[in-house]
Amino acid sequence: MVPSQTAGNRDLRLRAAVTAPREPLPARQRRVKTGTAGFMLVNHILATVALLPQFWSWQAIVAFGILYWMTVLGVTLGLHRLVAHRSLVVPVWLERVLVVMGTLACQSGPIEWVGLHRHHHRFSDQPADHHDAGRGLWWSHSEWMLHDIPALKELDRYAGDLQCDPFYRWLDRWFLLLQIPLGLCLYWYGETALVHGGGLGLVLWGIPLRLVVVYHVTWLVNSATHAFGYRNFDCPDLSRNCWWVAILSFGEGWHNNHHAHPASARHGLRWFEFDMTWQHVRFLKHLGLAKCIREARYRL
Q1: How wide is the angle at C-alpha 80 spanned by C-alphas 35 and 140, nearest 5°?
Q2: How far apart are CA 88 and CA 235, in angstroms?
Q3: What's the rounded Cα separation, in Å, for the pair 84 and 93?
Q4: What is the distance, to the nearest Å, from the Cα of residue 19 to the centroid of all Cα atoms in its chain?
Q5: Does 4 fall in a domain?
Q6: Is residue 13 part of a domain?
Q7: R_g of the chain computed on alpha carbons
């Protein structure tokens, strides 16, 4: 069989898997993980408390904005395009900084994040995909995290390169601790500068409110961009380009482009597909801090 026929048959099999009815979850996956559910519930409650009038201040808004930029860029550029897909090369110190910024998102440690993301690309929108869009919008958005994730047993296969690095192993184990020095700094500044709402207000805006917003923005890439938008490429999955998710997620919403060219550091491929993360990559290249940049281009 010629290669084109082999690829065509593979795509047909993938499309069949994507559109096939889903079987009920296995019994071992039906139980809700109380630890994860409790953590998410507490953060959502505290994020709501942060929005009470007594905790508003311009310093809180600035702190939220800076930390949102750091965290989202750390996820999109650090964990995703740099480490998960190796779409570019930067100095080791800069990679470490970007990964720490991404780990501030509290979306597990870098080994687990990268391993699960690579697994998602291998089985995108198929029953083996841990946030399989074929199970519905709510499942792909966040419900999948509340249950057992079989893909975690395959981290050796999908993130073995990171497991060889002691720094990433440490970060994967202790990622939650990063919020402690951040919280102490925010509290100290809020109390010292006599900010309205005090140190507690800055902590609420800088940690739980930021985490919840970043969570939902990241989850929208798993859910909304597999349900809403247009397609530039006929990929054998449900990926879409969704402009409003792209704005919130610094370019990750051009998801169909990404699934068509996963190794590309550039996700926004058409003139109107603004990709803020790609602009950061270009800036790093201008500074001489990024090289070997993989870039896909859109052709009519």
Answers
A1: 50
A2: 23
A3: 17
A4: 25
A5: no
A6: no
A7: 20
CA distances from 90 to 168, 177, 281, 288, 293 (A): 16, 26, 10, 9, 10
Q: What SS3 class is residue 277? A: helix
| Residue 254 main-chain phi, psi, to 5 deg | -80, 65
Distant-in-sequence, close-in-space partners of 141: CB < 8 Å, separation ≥ 6: 131, 219, 220, 222, 223, 224
> Would you say residue 208 lies in a domain?
yes
Q: CA torsion sign, 188 to 192 to 196 to 197?
A: positive
Question: pTM score > 0.90 for this model?
Answer: yes
Identify the CA nearest to 111 among candidates 66, 70, 156, 177.
156
Residue 128 to residues 135, 173, 223, 295: CA-CA distances in angstroms? 11, 26, 16, 29
The range of the structural domain enclosing residue 101 comes to 30-286
Give 124-182 pLDDT, tens digit per residue.
999 999 999 999 999 999 999 999 999 999 999 999 999 999 999 999 999 999 999 99
- What does the pLDDT look like over 148-157, one tens digit per residue? 999 999 999 9
What is residue 241's DSSP assignment?
B
Residue 292 falls inside a structural domain: no
Phi and psi, residue 24, nearest 5°: -60, 155
**Residue 119 Cα distances to 8, 23, 78, 151, 225, angstroms:** 22, 20, 18, 7, 18
* Counts for the chain of helices (H) and strands (E), in that order: 16, 0
- Cα–Cα dist 135/224, whole Å: 13
Length of the chain: 300
Number of domains in the chain: 1
Tokens at 212, concatenated? 């919840």
